[in-house]
C-alpha cells in the first residue's frame, strides 16, 4: 500500500514502457488509485502544501544556492482533455513566481521559418523553475503528421531530433515529465457540447476542434508512434486517463511531487552571519 489512496506509485503505473498500447488504456479508469472522486479531491487539496513547500525550496535553492535543477511538465492532449485544469488546479497551487508557462499555438510565420525546436528552446525553464508546456514540440509530430504539414521524411527526422534535444535538456538539470491526458471521443463530444451550451464557455470553443475530432483515430495512431519513438529514460511519457478530471489532476500532482522529492531541494544556507545580523537588527 502506497501513500494515501495509491496502491502503487503513479509514476510506475502510468509510465509508457516497452510494448505499451494506448488502445489498452481506459480513459474512464483511475489506475493505481483506490478511491473515488471525493477522496481524490481531498487528497489533492491536502497534498498541495507538500508540493508548494518543495517548489519553494527548489526556487530558493536556485536563487541563493548553486542548484541548477528545474522541472518541465509537457502537457499534450486532444481538445477539452483538461490541460487548462491541470495548470489551474495543480500547478496553480504553487507560488506563481517559480512557474513559467508557455502555450504553443499554430506557429507564426517567423516560427515557421526556423526549425521546429527553435520556439521551444526559448521557453525552457530556468534553474529553480517549474516550466509547463501547454502543447509543445510534439504538435510537430502529431498535427504535423496527421495534417501532413511537413514531408514524411521531415516528420521521421523529428523523433530523433526530439530525443536528442530532450536528452540534452535533461542532462543540464531539467526533469522532464511528459503527460498525455487521454480522454474518449464520447467524453470530448460531451465537453464540446457543454462549451456550446454555455455562453461563458464559447470563448473556449473553436469550430476547428470538430475537424480535428473527425480525425480521432489518426491522432491516436500518431500518439502511439510518439510513445514508441520518444518515451525515453531521460524523458518518459505518462499516459493519464482523463475522463475523470479529479483523477487526472491527482495523477499529475503525484508525478510532479515525485520529481520534486527526487530532486530533494534544500533550503540554502545564509551567506551572512545570522547571529551578527540578529544583534544588528536588535540595535537598529
Ligand atoms: P489550443 O491549445 O486548443 O488553444 O489550440 C492550439 C492549436 O494550435 C491546436 O489546434 C494545435 O494543434 C495548434 N498547434 C500547436 N502547435 C502547432 C504546430 N507546431 N503546428 C501546427 N499546429 C499547431
Ligand atoms: Mg483548443
Short characterization:
The chain has helices spanning 10-14, 37-64, 83-89, 109-112, 118-121, 143-146, 152-171, 185-197, 208-213, 216-230, 245-263, 274-283; strands at 70-77, 99-103, 130-134, 174-182, 237-241. The chain has 284 residues and is an alpha/beta fold. Magnesium ion is lined by residues 79, 206, 209.
Question: How would you sum up this structure, described in words?
Answer:
The chain has a 5-stranded parallel β-sheet, with helices on both faces. It is an alpha/beta fold. The chain starts with 9 loop residues before the first helix and ends with a helix. The protein is globular and about 70 Å long. It has one domain: Rossmann fold. 48% of the residues lie in helices and 11% in strands. Bound molecules: adenosine monophosphate (AMP) and magnesium ion.
Can you tell me the overall shape? globular
User: Over the alpha carbons, how many angstroms does the gyration radius reach?
Assistant: 20 Å
Kindly report the average pLDDT value: 96
What is the spatial order of strands in the main beta sheet?
2-3-1-4-5
Bound compounds, each kind once, are: adenosine monophosphate, magnesium ion
Q: How is the main sheet built?
A: 5 strands, parallel
Strand portion = 5-15%
Give, in order, the helices and strands.
HHEHEHHEHHEHHHEHH
**Distinct helical segment count:** 12
The CATH superfamily is known as P-loop containing nucleotide triphosphate hydrolases
Helix content: 40-55%
End-to-end gap: 55 Å
